[in-house]
Amino acid sequence: MWRSEMTGRGLVATTILLALAIPAMAQDEAGPQAKRPTVARNAPPSANATVNLINLLVKQGVLGEEQAQALIKQADDEAYVARQAVRDAASKADGAEKKASTAADAVSPPGTKRVTYVPEIVKKQLRDEIRAEVMDKAEKENWASPGKYPEWAQRLRFYGDVRTRYEGDFFPRGNAGQFAVNYNAINTGSPYNVLANGPNANPYFWPTYDTDQDRNRARLRARLGLDANLFEGFAAGFRIATGDTSSPVSFNQSLGGSGGNFSKYAIWLDRAYIKYSPWNDLTFQAGRFDNPFFSPTDLVWYRDLGFDGAAIQARFQVQPGITPFVAAGAFPIFNTDLNAGSSLNFNDINVLPGKAPSHDKWLLGAQAGGSFQPAPDVDLTVGAAYFHYLNVQGRVSDSCIAVTAADFCSTDLTRPSFAQKGNTYMALRNIRPTFDAAGNANPQFQYFGLASDFRDLVLSGRLDLGYFHPVHVILDGEYVRNLAWNRDDIAAKVLANPLPVNATAGCATAPCPQTYIGGNQGWMARMTVGHREMKELWDWNAFVGYKWLESDAVVDAFTDSDFGLGGTNLKGYFIGGNVALGPNVWATLRWMSASQVAGAPYAVDVVQFDLNAKF
């Protein structure tokens, strides 16, 4: 069997060489209008030896008819180019001879006879130059190899992935649902009336997260991107993706959502950037792009989070096995709308409405680290990062009146524009009480902001042991500490954070005070055993890990959205695995069990089964 395969390969190689080596003049014998020989298992003998050989290989089953046709087409293309080169060379040689004869005749006595001689090396040089010109023209105009993409299209690369998911969310008995206030629903919608008494007051019902009703969901994620290699180190790209909302940490679209009844789903712009790499180890990028920092876990940053802004990355191998790297960037989190303002004045109802001052929010980040290879089968990567947030902490407003949901107070823009859950909140509006004609208190509509500031120190590491390659043992770890956290400052502010009536013992009227019991640290450890990537059939890996993330260690908007259904103030374990069903197709099973770190009881178990495909 091996000899047969080798013989077949040798015949194919011989055929290709014969097809490409036929002299240009020999190909011309059939004339420019000659019919191209056909390839078939029962084809009659041909005057062309190469075609006869190809037909013989087709009959023996070594070549398929489509492969044989491709070989003949390639030979024809090469022959055409060669014929063009010979004809052009002959034409130029004739012209040179005529010019030489004319010049010689002008200076020679009458009756002199001359024989013009063009050296063979000159003829060869002319043929080579003309052939190069013809090939260059053929490449640019795409007529020597029809079917080949033009040059500009070869600089584009499309990519994408599709994931279908079953997700089950299971809540045990005993969760304190009234404590899971959905501040994001308040801050991204209408403010809430926190005054419960008086005939004109709105009902005092807080929006909360689901903590006691099990859910089963079918979900979908689809992404399509384009990378374009421009010129001299410049590149650009963009990607679109699905999603229930514009959430930065979830591309999942719940099937049956968006109105149900097979309604169509929204597509969001997920990436759009320009990148410049003057050399391979230095990259500048601006726009919306992948996380530029080394982040082996989802403790601080969700794995698919897109960063808006500008970043620089650099690495340099100082010696074999030692490669330091640095990364830094500036990222706008929130930009004040030009027309952000008030429908009423902050303090005096007799003063005309005005516009709010700018209150943009930024994230500044920097990281330094290195990749090390102390042994051929050992890879270690470590990094230390510092992330400084600007203007994300809430501030108490000037005295203001907020009797309707449309009213505006001076620090409303300090509230988060997106949040999950877990961070500690404070009331933003310093509302001045007002009363109606009957002496009843008017409603007091309130927004909420983050009680803590955030300056995160993050230590990250990954150890890859490849002693059993292709099976690897990978250990990931990460630790975070919020250096701006101040327990006393947060405790003083959180007292203004009202809870529903009777939510705490001894509280009979609203608003009820809350005692602060949060924290500022988090850590996560994970071990993965198996293949690093799902490339071939039955590639596999399994993983297990543990996570501890206190309430105000990180901004809850940007961390993992799956564990504990997203956010901070969570602890627990996770376990799962992947198996490849073919090239670039694999299945994933994951189980996550989470509960609260501190505060009212909250726990949830999440199971996810994914079918993934990428291209």
Could you characterize what this model shows?
The protein has 615 residues and is an alpha+beta fold. The chain folds into two domains: 2-148, no CATH class; 156-176 and 211-393 and 452-485 and 520-614, Porin, CATH 2.40.160. The chain is 18% helix and 34% strand. The protein has seven helices and 23 strands. It has helices at 2-21, 24-27, 49-59, 65-107, 120-141, 183-187, 487-494; strands spanning 156-170, 192-193, 215-229, 234-241, 253-254, 268-279, 282-289, 307-315, 322-334, 361-375, 378-390, 399-400, 425-427, 430-431, 445-446, 448-450, 455-468, 471-482, 521-530, 540-549, 570-582, 585-596, 603-614. It has a 16-stranded antiparallel beta barrel with strand order 1-3-4-6-7-8-9-10-11-17-18-19-20-21-22-23. Helix 1 packs parallel to helix 4, helix 3 (49-59) packs antiparallel against helix 4 and helix 4 packs across helix 5 (120-141). The longest helix is centred in the first third of the chain and has 43 residues, at 65-107. It is elongated and about 130 Å long. The two termini are 35 Å apart. The model is unreliable at 1-36, 344-350 and 497-506 (pLDDT under 50).
Outline of the structure:
The chain is an alpha+beta fold and 615 residues long. The chain has 2 domains: 2-148, no CATH class; 156-176 and 211-393 and 452-485 and 520-614, Beta Barrel (Porin), CATH 2.40.160.
List the helices and strands and how they pair.
Layout: H1 2-21, H2 24-27, H3 49-59, H4 65-107, H5 120-141, E1 156-170, H6 183-187, E2 192-193, E3 215-229, E4 234-241, E5 253-254, E6 268-279, E7 282-289, E8 307-315, E9 322-334, E10 361-375, E11 378-390, E12 399-400, E13 425-427, E14 430-431, E15 445-446, E16 448-450, E17 455-468, E18 471-482, H7 487-494, E19 521-530, E20 540-549, E21 570-582, E22 585-596, E23 603-614
Parallel strand pairs: 12-14
Antiparallel strand pairs: 1-3, 1-23, 2-15, 3-4, 3-5, 4-6, 6-7, 7-8, 8-9, 9-10, 10-11, 11-17, 13-16, 17-18, 18-19, 19-20, 20-21, 21-22, 22-23
Region (Disordered): 91-110
Signal peptide: 1-26
Organism: Bradyrhizobium campsiandrae
